[in-house]
């Protein structure tokens, strides 16, 4: 690039940063993806298959990384347990979660591309310091525990491969830190996508294991509830575990910030949606492969009982030989590293948003010391816990991840929905009524599942009847809320001064959120205030009870 072109590009970036909500000016500029570059001033139409493919290759990354990062160490354990306990009969849950995954992640990528600021900062600016601090503290705690499970996955994989624990954990931590600390977004993304490519190792492993393809195809499309009357409670908890490991709060924070850091704007929304769909397809294939491997490996004679993802590697060795077990251990190691990349970055991005410090992979360590300190700090903390804590404590922390994720996910989705129906924030990019209705239904289901999961941690011997009571109560509450809102909307429509709502979506490719200090705090209606108050009370009570129970478990009570 010539000096004149570079100066014009920098001037355009500075102007964009000054007239929009963008916080870090490193978030404005050329898109420098792993497989291509798109100039900041490139507004040309994409015509022809070759041009469209080049654009997609430059954009691809955020959706792929967040989705493959979702098939992390915790997912390996959850899907492996499902295969051990029920074979492939729960594959339908993965297919059922596809629209949930897409709608949630499409909303955050839309927020990122249009606003140019992260999820944490939007919550602070629009909902106030209480909810902002609440969401970030919760995210930090949950992410720290999730990172511990990633390093547990690393120790399980390297232990199976015969590598010493301490050097393996230290080396993995150094690789994870070094990968993001080069000051080059493109270098990080290329390395991350190499690890994403490694996740495809599950496909040849599955082909070597020869699962029953016909049975798997049948179980994908036909829901069933195996286990009989006496097994309803553990079955429900496992299904909830699959939901929790597939739809996690850190995903929302990570993808929104990563889209911003990659400098993706609304002009390239359809390409980023394609990237997201590619990621969803890969994550579903991976989850199905793990479940299928668990089904065939644990059904073999002489296989061990399921304890963790490492026991699945041992079962595969018993079933098909050492090479099969080794390949699975490498896939587990790869998945744990990708998960650690994404979870630690989501934390560092959120802290950068909150304290308004430089937080971009385009910057070197000297230019963003706080951002990289948080990133390295959470990784170092997780690695230290894994190296020093007892197996009992690590097992409790693994349980804690599921419990806290179950508590926090509904609230994270509530904030996401409120931001995506906020016209001042998204303008012509606000949700359609269909998206809002679907997301509201998902939130209701997530709240019900969250309550069941929280109850199961507090009362480990929860019965199927008690689970049914919780679900029936939630269904009744949801029906009552829907009826109230429906009647309220009908009365509003019948009012003499009613004006039908209209969203002008013209010119939205160039529309960006104005500086947030011009928007102010979001004003709640009375109904919304009461709803948010009830959500606040539920979160506080559930979190306190879960943490108390986990501490008791750590102390051996």
> Quaternary status of these chains?
single chain
Helix/strand structural class: mainly alpha
Radius of gyration: 23 Å
> Helical proportion?
over 70%
Low-pLDDT ranges: 1-12
CA-CA gap between termini? 66 Å
Helical run tally:
22
What does this structure look like?
With 557 residues, the chain is mainly alpha-helical. It is built from 22 helices and two strands. It has helices at residues 3-19, 49-59, 62-70, 73-86, 92-115, 119-127, 129-160, 165-180, 185-198, 202-209, 213-221, 232-246, 249-261, 269-299, 309-320, 322-355, 369-388, 391-420, 423-426, 433-458, 464-494, 526-554; strands at 31-33, 36-38. Strands 1-2 form a two-stranded antiparallel ribbon.
Layout of SSEs?
Elements: H1 3-19, E1 31-33, E2 36-38, H2 49-59, H3 62-70, H4 73-86, H5 92-115, H6 119-127, H7 129-160, H8 165-180, H9 185-198, H10 202-209, H11 213-221, H12 232-246, H13 249-261, H14 269-299, H15 309-320, H16 322-355, H17 369-388, H18 391-420, H19 423-426, H20 433-458, H21 464-494, H22 526-554
Antiparallel strand pairs: 1-2
Helix pairs in contact: 3-13, 3-14, 3-16, 4-12, 4-14, 5-12, 5-13, 5-14, 5-18, 6-7, 6-16, 7-8, 7-15, 7-16, 7-17, 7-18, 8-17, 9-16, 10-14, 10-16, 12-18, 13-16, 14-15, 15-16, 16-17, 18-20, 18-22, 20-21, 20-22
What structural keywords apply?
557 residues; mainly alpha; 22 helices; 2 strands; 73% helix; 1% strand; globular; disordered N terminus
Summarize the structure.
The protein is built from 22 helices and two strands. The protein has 557 residues and is mostly helical.
């Amino acid at each position: 690039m010539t000096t004149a072109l570079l100066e014009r590009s920098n001037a355009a970036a500075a102007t964009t940063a000054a007239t929009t909500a963008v916080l870090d000016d490193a978030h404005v500029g050329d898109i420098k993806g792993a497989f291509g570059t798109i100039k900041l001033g490139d507004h040309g139409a994409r015509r022809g298959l070759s041009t469209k493919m080049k654009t997609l290759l430059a954009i691809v990354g955020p959706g792929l990384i967040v989705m493959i990062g979702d098939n992390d160490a915790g997912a390996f354990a959850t899907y492996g347990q499902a295969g051990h306990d029920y074979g492939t009969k729960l594959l339908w849950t993965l297919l059922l979660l596809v629209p949930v995954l897409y709608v949630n992640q499409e909303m955050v990528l839309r927020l990122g591309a249009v606003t140019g600021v992260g999820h944490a900062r939007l919550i602070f600016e629009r909902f106030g310091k209480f909810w902002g601090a609440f969401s970030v503290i919760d995210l930090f705690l949950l992410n720290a525990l999730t990172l511990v499970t990633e390093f547990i996955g690393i120790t399980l994989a390297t232990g199976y491969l015969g590598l010493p624990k301490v050097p393996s954990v230290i080396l993995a931590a150094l690789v994870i830190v070094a990968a993001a600390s080069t000051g080059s977004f493109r270098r990080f993304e290329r390395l991350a996508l190499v690890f994403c490519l490694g996740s495809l190792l599950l496909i040849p492993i599955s082909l070597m294991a020869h699962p029953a393809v016909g049975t798997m195809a049948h179980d994908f499309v036909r829901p069933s509830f195996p286990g009989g009357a006496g097994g309803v409670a553990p079955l429900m908890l496992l299904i909830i575990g699959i939901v929790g490991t597939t739809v996690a709060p850190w995903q929302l924070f990570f993808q929104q910030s990563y889209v911003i850091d990659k400098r993706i704007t609304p002009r390239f929304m359809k390409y980023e949606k394609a990237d997201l769909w590619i990621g969803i397809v890969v994550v579903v294939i991976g989850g199905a492969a793990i479940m299928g491997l668990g089904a065939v490996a644990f059904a073999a004679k002489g296989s061990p009982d399921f304890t963790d993802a490492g026991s699945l590697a041992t079962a595969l060795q018993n079933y098909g030989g050492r090479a099969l077990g080794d390949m699975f251990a490498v896939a587990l190691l790869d998945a744990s590293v990708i998960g650690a990349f994404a979870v630690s970055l989501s934390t560092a991005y959120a802290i950068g948003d909150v304290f308004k410090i430089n937080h971009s992979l385009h910057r070197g360590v000297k230019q963003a010391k706080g951002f990289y300190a948080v990133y390295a700090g959470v990784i170092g903390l997780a690695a230290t816990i894994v190296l020093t804590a007892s197996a009992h404590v690590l097992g409790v922390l693994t349980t804690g991840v599921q419990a806290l994720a179950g508590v926090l996910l509904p609230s994270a989705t509530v904030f996401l929905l409120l931001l995506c129906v906020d016209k001042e924030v998204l303008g012509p990019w606000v949700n359609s009524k269909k998206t809002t209705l679907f997301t509201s239904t998902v939130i209701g289901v997530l709240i019900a599942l969250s309550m069941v999961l929280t109850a199961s941690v507090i009362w480990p011997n929860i019965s199927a009847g008690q689970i049914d009571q919780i679900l029936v109560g939630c269904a009744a509450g949801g029906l009552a809320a829907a009826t109230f809102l429906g009647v309220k909307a009908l009365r509003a429509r019948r009012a003499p001064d009613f004006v039908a709502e209209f969203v002008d979506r013209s010119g939205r490719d160039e529309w960006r959120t104005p500086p947030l200090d011009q928007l102010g705090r979001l004003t709640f209606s009375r109904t919304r205030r009461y709803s948010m108050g009830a959500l606040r009370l539920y979160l506080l009570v559930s979190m306190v009870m879960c943490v108390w129970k986990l501490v008791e478990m750590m102390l051996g009570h």
